[in-house]
Amino acid sequence: MSLNSTPSSERIHISFFGKRNAGKSSLINAITNQNISIVSEIKGTTTDPVQKAMELLPLGPVVITDTAGFDDEGDLGKLRVEKTLQVLNKTDIAILTTDARPGLSAQDTELINIFEEKNIKYIIVYNKSDLITEFKPLKENEIYVSALNKKNIYELKELITKIYEEPENKLTLVKDIITSNDTVIMVTPIDSAAPKGRIILPQQQVLRELLETGSTNIVVKETELIQALNCLKNRPKLVITDSQAFEKVNNETPSDILLTSFSILFARYKGVLEYAVKGIKALENLNNNDTILISEGCTHHRQCNDIGTVKLPKWIQNYTGKNFNFEFSSGTGFPADLTKYNLIVHCGSCMLKDKEVLWRYKTAEKQGIPITNYGILIAYVNNILKRSLEVFPDIYSLLR
Predict the structure, then answer these.
(1) Domain check: are 34 and 142 in the same one?
(2) Closest CA to 344 of 323, 310, 371, 366
(3) 117 and 17 in one domain?
(4) pTM metric for this prediction
Protein backbone atom coordinates (compact mmCIF):
# COMPACT_ATOMS: atom_id res chain seq x y z
CA MET A 1 0.00 0.00 0.00
CA SER A 2 1.58 3.30 -1.02
CA LEU A 3 1.57 6.41 1.14
CA ASN A 4 -0.94 8.02 -1.19
CA SER A 5 -3.38 5.14 -0.78
CA THR A 6 -3.10 4.91 3.00
CA PRO A 7 -6.65 5.05 4.40
CA SER A 8 -7.60 8.04 6.54
CA SER A 9 -8.06 5.80 9.57
CA GLU A 10 -4.37 4.83 9.43
CA ARG A 11 -2.97 8.35 8.97
CA ILE A 12 -1.71 10.80 11.59
CA HIS A 13 -4.40 13.46 12.05
CA ILE A 14 -3.08 17.01 12.48
CA SER A 15 -5.84 19.53 13.21
CA PHE A 16 -5.70 23.32 13.36
CA PHE A 17 -7.74 25.21 15.95
CA GLY A 18 -8.12 28.80 17.05
CA LYS A 19 -10.22 31.93 16.78
CA ARG A 20 -11.52 33.39 13.53
CA ASN A 21 -8.85 35.27 11.58
CA ALA A 22 -6.00 33.85 13.63
CA GLY A 23 -4.55 32.67 10.33
CA LYS A 24 -5.28 28.93 10.54
CA SER A 25 -6.05 28.61 6.84
CA SER A 26 -3.02 30.67 5.79
CA LEU A 27 -0.82 28.57 8.05
CA ILE A 28 -2.11 25.30 6.56
CA ASN A 29 -1.49 26.60 3.04
CA ALA A 30 2.05 27.59 4.03
CA ILE A 31 2.82 24.22 5.66
CA THR A 32 1.46 22.18 2.77
CA ASN A 33 2.58 24.59 0.06
CA GLN A 34 -0.91 24.19 -1.41
CA ASN A 35 -4.06 26.30 -1.45
CA ILE A 36 -6.06 23.83 0.62
CA SER A 37 -8.08 26.37 2.58
CA ILE A 38 -9.74 29.59 1.42
CA VAL A 39 -8.04 32.64 2.92
CA SER A 40 -9.94 35.86 3.56
CA GLU A 41 -9.95 38.81 5.94
CA ILE A 42 -13.65 38.15 6.50
CA LYS A 43 -14.25 36.38 9.80
CA GLY A 44 -15.74 32.89 9.59
CA THR A 45 -14.54 32.03 6.07
CA THR A 46 -13.94 28.44 7.18
CA THR A 47 -17.29 26.92 8.15
CA ASP A 48 -17.27 23.11 8.18
CA PRO A 49 -13.96 21.32 8.84
CA VAL A 50 -11.84 21.00 5.68
CA GLN A 51 -9.69 17.87 5.37
CA LYS A 52 -6.76 17.08 3.12
CA ALA A 53 -4.94 13.74 3.00
CA MET A 54 -1.31 14.17 2.05
CA GLU A 55 2.28 13.28 2.90
CA LEU A 56 4.12 15.43 5.42
CA LEU A 57 7.73 14.35 5.63
CA PRO A 58 9.27 12.95 7.69
CA LEU A 59 6.01 11.88 9.40
CA GLY A 60 4.57 10.26 6.26
CA PRO A 61 0.85 10.01 5.46
CA VAL A 62 -1.24 12.53 7.40
CA VAL A 63 -4.64 14.19 7.36
CA ILE A 64 -4.62 17.97 7.76
CA THR A 65 -7.86 19.46 9.11
CA ASP A 66 -8.82 23.14 9.11
CA THR A 67 -11.61 24.03 11.54
CA ALA A 68 -14.03 26.89 12.03
CA GLY A 69 -13.13 29.65 14.46
CA PHE A 70 -13.71 28.65 18.08
CA ASP A 71 -15.17 32.09 18.76
CA ASP A 72 -17.83 31.80 16.02
CA GLU A 73 -21.14 33.47 16.91
CA GLY A 74 -24.87 32.99 16.44
CA ASP A 75 -26.87 29.81 15.94
CA LEU A 76 -24.83 28.75 12.90
CA GLY A 77 -21.64 29.64 14.72
CA LYS A 78 -22.61 27.37 17.60
CA LEU A 79 -23.10 24.48 15.18
CA ARG A 80 -19.71 25.18 13.60
CA VAL A 81 -18.04 25.11 17.01
CA GLU A 82 -19.71 21.75 17.71
CA LYS A 83 -18.23 20.44 14.44
CA THR A 84 -14.84 21.76 15.54
CA LEU A 85 -15.11 19.91 18.86
CA GLN A 86 -15.96 16.68 17.00
CA VAL A 87 -12.65 16.93 15.15
CA LEU A 88 -10.85 16.63 18.50
CA ASN A 89 -12.06 13.04 18.84
CA LYS A 90 -9.77 11.91 16.00
CA THR A 91 -6.89 14.37 16.42
CA ASP A 92 -3.35 13.13 17.11
CA ILE A 93 -1.69 16.55 17.09
CA ALA A 94 -3.52 19.84 17.69
CA ILE A 95 -2.11 23.09 16.32
CA LEU A 96 -3.50 26.06 18.24
CA THR A 97 -3.09 29.10 16.01
CA THR A 98 -3.30 32.52 17.64
CA ASP A 99 -2.53 36.06 16.53
CA ALA A 100 0.89 36.97 17.96
CA ARG A 101 -0.16 40.58 18.63
CA PRO A 102 -2.77 40.06 21.38
CA GLY A 103 -1.48 36.61 22.33
CA LEU A 104 -3.62 33.91 23.92
CA SER A 105 -7.31 34.66 24.33
CA ALA A 106 -9.92 33.15 26.66
CA GLN A 107 -11.04 30.86 23.81
CA ASP A 108 -7.44 29.78 23.24
CA THR A 109 -7.05 28.90 26.91
CA GLU A 110 -10.30 26.94 26.78
CA LEU A 111 -8.97 24.95 23.84
CA ILE A 112 -5.71 24.23 25.66
CA ASN A 113 -7.67 22.88 28.61
CA ILE A 114 -9.64 20.61 26.26
CA PHE A 115 -6.42 19.36 24.63
CA GLU A 116 -5.01 18.48 28.04
CA GLU A 117 -8.23 16.85 29.24
CA LYS A 118 -8.25 14.66 26.12
CA ASN A 119 -4.50 14.00 26.37
CA ILE A 120 -3.86 15.44 22.89
CA LYS A 121 -0.36 16.60 22.04
CA TYR A 122 -0.49 20.26 21.00
CA ILE A 123 1.60 23.14 19.69
CA ILE A 124 0.84 26.81 20.23
CA VAL A 125 1.63 28.79 17.08
CA TYR A 126 1.91 32.58 17.38
CA ASN A 127 1.10 33.55 13.82
CA LYS A 128 1.54 36.97 12.16
CA SER A 129 4.87 37.40 13.94
CA ASP A 130 5.93 39.75 11.12
CA LEU A 131 3.64 42.34 12.74
CA ILE A 132 5.36 42.41 16.16
CA THR A 133 8.73 43.63 17.40
CA GLU A 134 8.88 42.15 20.90
CA PHE A 135 9.14 38.38 21.35
CA LYS A 136 8.59 36.66 24.68
CA PRO A 137 10.45 33.49 25.73
CA LEU A 138 8.68 30.37 24.51
CA LYS A 139 7.97 26.95 25.95
CA GLU A 140 9.12 23.86 24.05
CA ASN A 141 5.70 23.44 22.42
CA GLU A 142 5.40 27.08 21.27
CA ILE A 143 6.71 28.82 18.16
CA TYR A 144 6.49 32.17 16.37
CA VAL A 145 5.66 31.99 12.66
CA SER A 146 4.56 34.17 9.81
CA ALA A 147 2.37 32.33 7.34
CA LEU A 148 2.54 35.38 5.09
CA ASN A 149 6.33 35.43 4.87
CA LYS A 150 6.79 31.65 5.38
CA LYS A 151 8.95 32.43 8.41
CA ASN A 152 9.62 29.42 10.70
CA ILE A 153 7.35 27.13 8.65
CA TYR A 154 10.13 24.55 8.31
CA GLU A 155 10.81 24.82 12.05
CA LEU A 156 7.10 24.25 12.75
CA LYS A 157 7.16 21.06 10.68
CA GLU A 158 10.16 19.90 12.66
CA LEU A 159 8.34 20.65 15.92
CA ILE A 160 5.31 18.66 14.75
CA THR A 161 7.59 15.71 14.04
CA LYS A 162 9.29 16.06 17.42
CA ILE A 163 6.06 16.24 19.42
CA TYR A 164 4.35 13.29 17.74
CA GLU A 165 4.61 10.01 19.61
CA GLU A 166 3.88 6.62 18.11
CA PRO A 167 1.17 4.86 20.16
CA GLU A 168 2.59 2.28 22.56
CA ASN A 169 1.51 -1.34 22.12
CA LYS A 170 -0.31 -0.58 18.87
CA LEU A 171 -2.89 -3.27 18.26
CA THR A 172 -2.80 -5.54 15.24
CA LEU A 173 -5.41 -7.36 13.20
CA VAL A 174 -3.88 -10.83 12.92
CA LYS A 175 -0.09 -10.59 13.35
CA ASP A 176 -0.19 -11.83 16.92
CA ILE A 177 -2.32 -14.90 16.21
CA ILE A 178 -0.94 -16.11 12.85
CA THR A 179 2.58 -17.41 12.07
CA SER A 180 4.43 -18.29 8.90
CA ASN A 181 3.48 -21.95 9.39
CA ASP A 182 -0.26 -21.24 9.30
CA THR A 183 -2.80 -21.31 6.49
CA VAL A 184 -5.69 -18.84 6.50
CA ILE A 185 -8.80 -18.69 4.34
CA MET A 186 -10.48 -15.32 3.78
CA VAL A 187 -14.10 -15.48 2.68
CA THR A 188 -14.99 -12.32 0.75
CA PRO A 189 -18.48 -12.24 -0.79
CA ILE A 190 -18.75 -10.18 -3.97
CA ASP A 191 -22.27 -8.74 -3.83
CA SER A 192 -23.96 -5.72 -5.37
CA ALA A 193 -22.52 -3.43 -2.69
CA ALA A 194 -18.90 -4.44 -3.31
CA PRO A 195 -16.82 -1.83 -5.16
CA LYS A 196 -16.09 -2.88 -8.73
CA GLY A 197 -12.52 -3.87 -9.42
CA ARG A 198 -11.40 -4.11 -5.80
CA ILE A 199 -12.15 -5.65 -2.44
CA ILE A 200 -13.34 -3.58 0.51
CA LEU A 201 -10.95 -1.91 2.94
CA PRO A 202 -11.22 -4.37 5.90
CA GLN A 203 -10.36 -7.26 3.60
CA GLN A 204 -7.44 -5.33 2.09
CA GLN A 205 -5.96 -4.51 5.48
CA VAL A 206 -6.33 -8.03 6.88
CA LEU A 207 -4.78 -9.53 3.74
CA ARG A 208 -1.86 -7.10 3.96
CA GLU A 209 -1.15 -8.13 7.55
CA LEU A 210 -1.46 -11.80 6.68
CA LEU A 211 1.09 -11.38 3.89
CA GLU A 212 3.47 -9.77 6.39
CA THR A 213 3.25 -12.86 8.62
CA GLY A 214 4.48 -15.11 5.80
CA SER A 215 1.46 -17.36 6.17
CA THR A 216 -0.26 -19.16 3.30
CA ASN A 217 -3.41 -17.26 2.45
CA ILE A 218 -6.37 -18.19 0.28
CA VAL A 219 -9.12 -15.76 -0.73
CA VAL A 220 -12.44 -17.16 -1.92
CA LYS A 221 -16.09 -16.23 -2.23
CA GLU A 222 -18.50 -17.94 0.14
CA THR A 223 -19.62 -20.20 -2.70
CA GLU A 224 -16.11 -21.65 -3.10
CA LEU A 225 -15.26 -22.29 0.57
CA ILE A 226 -15.95 -26.04 0.52
CA GLN A 227 -13.86 -26.45 -2.63
CA ALA A 228 -10.98 -24.57 -1.03
CA LEU A 229 -11.13 -26.69 2.13
CA ASN A 230 -11.12 -29.90 0.07
CA CYS A 231 -8.11 -28.77 -1.96
CA LEU A 232 -5.89 -28.17 1.08
CA LYS A 233 -3.50 -30.88 2.23
CA ASN A 234 -3.20 -29.28 5.67
CA ARG A 235 -6.18 -27.84 7.51
CA PRO A 236 -6.19 -24.05 7.84
CA LYS A 237 -5.74 -22.57 11.28
CA LEU A 238 -8.30 -19.82 10.74
CA VAL A 239 -11.18 -18.85 8.47
CA ILE A 240 -12.07 -15.14 8.36
CA THR A 241 -15.41 -14.23 6.84
CA ASP A 242 -17.50 -11.23 5.99
CA SER A 243 -20.23 -11.05 8.64
CA GLN A 244 -23.04 -11.31 6.10
CA ALA A 245 -21.88 -14.85 5.21
CA PHE A 246 -21.33 -15.87 8.84
CA GLU A 247 -24.07 -18.50 9.03
CA LYS A 248 -23.14 -20.26 5.77
CA VAL A 249 -19.41 -20.18 6.51
CA ASN A 250 -19.99 -21.48 10.04
CA ASN A 251 -21.99 -24.43 8.71
CA GLU A 252 -19.30 -25.32 6.16
CA THR A 253 -16.20 -24.84 8.31
CA PRO A 254 -15.22 -27.90 10.40
CA SER A 255 -15.43 -27.29 14.15
CA ASP A 256 -11.70 -27.87 14.69
CA ILE A 257 -10.88 -24.80 12.56
CA LEU A 258 -11.01 -21.37 14.18
CA LEU A 259 -13.56 -18.97 12.71
CA THR A 260 -14.03 -15.23 13.07
CA SER A 261 -15.08 -12.20 11.02
CA PHE A 262 -13.48 -9.06 9.65
CA SER A 263 -15.80 -6.98 11.81
CA ILE A 264 -14.69 -8.76 14.98
CA LEU A 265 -11.03 -8.38 14.01
CA PHE A 266 -11.56 -4.65 13.52
CA ALA A 267 -13.35 -4.25 16.85
CA ARG A 268 -10.28 -5.75 18.50
CA TYR A 269 -7.93 -3.65 16.33
CA LYS A 270 -9.73 -0.46 17.37
CA GLY A 271 -9.66 -1.47 21.04
CA VAL A 272 -13.43 -1.89 21.52
CA LEU A 273 -14.03 -5.65 21.26
CA GLU A 274 -14.61 -6.06 24.98
CA TYR A 275 -17.21 -3.26 24.94
CA ALA A 276 -18.97 -4.86 21.96
CA VAL A 277 -19.09 -8.33 23.53
CA LYS A 278 -20.49 -6.98 26.80
CA GLY A 279 -22.99 -4.81 24.92
CA ILE A 280 -24.59 -7.64 22.96
CA LYS A 281 -26.14 -9.06 26.13
CA ALA A 282 -28.58 -6.13 26.11
CA LEU A 283 -30.32 -7.72 23.12
CA GLU A 284 -32.02 -10.14 25.53
CA ASN A 285 -33.52 -7.34 27.64
CA LEU A 286 -35.06 -5.13 24.95
CA ASN A 287 -38.77 -4.36 25.01
CA ASN A 288 -41.24 -3.67 22.22
CA ASN A 289 -40.90 -0.13 20.82
CA ASP A 290 -37.42 0.39 22.26
CA THR A 291 -35.16 2.52 20.06
CA ILE A 292 -32.02 1.11 18.46
CA LEU A 293 -29.35 3.25 16.77
CA ILE A 294 -27.50 1.63 13.88
CA SER A 295 -24.39 3.67 13.17
CA GLU A 296 -21.90 3.54 10.31
CA GLY A 297 -18.53 5.27 10.26
CA CYS A 298 -18.62 6.04 6.54
CA THR A 299 -21.16 7.41 4.09
CA HIS A 300 -22.18 5.54 0.97
CA HIS A 301 -25.08 5.11 -1.39
CA ARG A 302 -27.49 2.72 0.29
CA GLN A 303 -28.81 -0.08 -1.89
CA CYS A 304 -32.01 -2.09 -1.74
CA ASN A 305 -30.63 -4.80 0.58
CA ASP A 306 -28.31 -2.60 2.62
CA ILE A 307 -26.88 -4.33 5.68
CA GLY A 308 -27.31 -1.40 8.06
CA THR A 309 -30.80 -0.22 7.18
CA VAL A 310 -32.37 -3.47 5.96
CA LYS A 311 -30.62 -6.67 7.02
CA LEU A 312 -29.68 -5.80 10.60
CA PRO A 313 -33.17 -4.61 11.61
CA LYS A 314 -34.64 -7.84 10.19
CA TRP A 315 -32.12 -10.04 11.99
CA ILE A 316 -32.72 -8.23 15.28
CA GLN A 317 -36.51 -8.40 15.08
CA ASN A 318 -36.52 -12.03 13.89
CA TYR A 319 -34.24 -13.05 16.76
CA THR A 320 -36.14 -11.21 19.50
CA GLY A 321 -39.66 -11.54 18.06
CA LYS A 322 -40.22 -7.89 18.98
CA ASN A 323 -40.74 -4.63 17.12
CA PHE A 324 -38.33 -1.74 17.56
CA ASN A 325 -37.83 1.82 16.42
CA PHE A 326 -34.66 2.06 14.36
CA GLU A 327 -32.63 5.20 13.78
CA PHE A 328 -29.52 5.50 11.63
CA SER A 329 -26.38 7.64 11.58
CA SER A 330 -23.38 7.67 9.25
CA GLY A 331 -20.04 9.39 8.84
CA THR A 332 -19.33 11.99 11.50
CA GLY A 333 -22.99 12.18 12.49
CA PHE A 334 -22.70 10.20 15.73
CA PRO A 335 -25.09 11.78 18.29
CA ALA A 336 -23.61 13.39 21.39
CA ASP A 337 -26.74 12.60 23.42
CA LEU A 338 -27.44 8.86 23.31
CA THR A 339 -29.93 8.62 26.15
CA LYS A 340 -32.93 7.99 23.89
CA TYR A 341 -31.45 4.70 22.69
CA ASN A 342 -31.70 1.28 24.31
CA LEU A 343 -28.96 -0.26 22.16
CA ILE A 344 -26.36 0.95 19.66
CA VAL A 345 -25.10 -1.31 16.88
CA HIS A 346 -21.97 0.11 15.24
CA CYS A 347 -20.23 -0.94 12.04
CA GLY A 348 -16.73 -2.42 12.03
CA SER A 349 -15.27 1.12 11.93
CA CYS A 350 -12.63 0.43 9.29
CA MET A 351 -12.90 4.05 8.05
CA LEU A 352 -12.62 5.66 11.50
CA LYS A 353 -9.55 6.52 13.57
CA ASP A 354 -9.17 4.23 16.57
CA LYS A 355 -9.35 7.31 18.80
CA GLU A 356 -12.74 8.28 17.40
CA VAL A 357 -14.09 4.72 17.65
CA LEU A 358 -13.00 4.46 21.28
CA TRP A 359 -14.57 7.86 21.99
CA ARG A 360 -17.90 6.64 20.58
CA TYR A 361 -17.88 3.49 22.70
CA LYS A 362 -16.81 5.34 25.83
CA THR A 363 -19.47 8.00 25.24
CA ALA A 364 -22.08 5.24 25.16
CA GLU A 365 -20.64 3.66 28.30
CA LYS A 366 -20.69 6.97 30.21
CA GLN A 367 -24.34 7.45 29.30
CA GLY A 368 -25.21 3.89 30.28
CA ILE A 369 -26.15 2.77 26.77
CA PRO A 370 -25.03 -0.72 25.64
CA ILE A 371 -23.11 -0.74 22.37
CA THR A 372 -22.01 -3.60 20.13
CA ASN A 373 -21.01 -4.01 16.49
CA TYR A 374 -22.27 -5.64 13.31
CA GLY A 375 -20.08 -8.73 13.45
CA ILE A 376 -20.78 -9.46 17.12
CA LEU A 377 -24.52 -9.08 16.63
CA ILE A 378 -24.67 -11.24 13.49
CA ALA A 379 -22.65 -13.98 15.17
CA TYR A 380 -24.82 -13.77 18.28
CA VAL A 381 -28.19 -14.07 16.54
CA ASN A 382 -26.84 -17.05 14.57
CA ASN A 383 -25.62 -18.71 17.80
CA ILE A 384 -21.98 -18.70 16.73
CA LEU A 385 -20.53 -15.88 18.83
CA LYS A 386 -18.67 -18.22 21.17
CA ARG A 387 -17.04 -19.97 18.26
CA SER A 388 -16.07 -16.70 16.58
CA LEU A 389 -14.28 -15.55 19.75
CA GLU A 390 -12.33 -18.76 20.48
CA VAL A 391 -9.35 -17.23 18.68
CA PHE A 392 -9.20 -14.61 21.48
CA PRO A 393 -9.27 -16.56 24.80
CA ASP A 394 -9.27 -13.43 26.98
CA ILE A 395 -12.40 -12.11 25.26
CA TYR A 396 -13.99 -15.57 25.02
CA SER A 397 -13.88 -15.79 28.82
CA LEU A 398 -16.37 -12.89 29.02
CA LEU A 399 -19.08 -15.20 27.67
CA ARG A 400 -18.74 -17.79 30.42
Answers:
(1) yes
(2) 371
(3) yes
(4) 0.83
